[in-house]
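ugh ok fine here u go
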Amino acid sequence: MNQPPDLPAMLATWLHDRPAVDRATVQRAITAAVRKHQAGLHHLAEQREQQLARGVPAGDVREGRTKAYLAAIWSLARQLKFANVDPGINVAACRPVTKWFHVNQLAPIAGNREELDTWAEFGVAWDKAQMSPDQSPVIVATRYTEQHAPPATLARYNDDPPLFRLARLCWAMEETKASASPWWLGYRDAGAALGVDHTRLGPWFKQLDRDGITAVVAPGDQAKRKSPLRRFIGYDDSTQTEPSP
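structure:
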């Protein structure tokens, strides 16, 4: 995807009275949000087919659409808030963008939500967003795996590359965390980082726990679909490091 259709025209109108705003930066931010949303829609379609094949109730399918809708708005809010294009770009100023996003991207999954709902949800996401998309713990950890060698103990998974990548990501979460606290790695975030269906990851995490590679510090909440808090403990003598302060 080079750029979403009609985006340049919308930007030309929106930024007509804002000559100081770098239009290319704004366009990249919105395009990144659209790209992530389209990937989410593709995954949702695959998941829906699997659910329907298993006879999952329609209500659960609608819940998936709602999550995709909110995730897309969150992504757009984070991209624009941290693009640092202009101090005047705030929630109120972004109304034309959310309207365009609602009509051109969210319509298939918005249900009975109107453009006003999307703008209101955007405001909530904007206020809650604390870090730019490229500063999320999972992305920081993923970059760390590209630059550092993992402990030799993970060689036991050489014949199971997906499990090795998950173990390596858990190790990187431990190495890059901002405090001495345990880390939280959501299955969806891990699945996106590893390029696998997140529904497969529950047993994989439990295997790492059984192998003494990771340890659950606090249980998750299945009702709230929240993953456990974990630590990486699978160091060997030659590579063990102290937890980040």
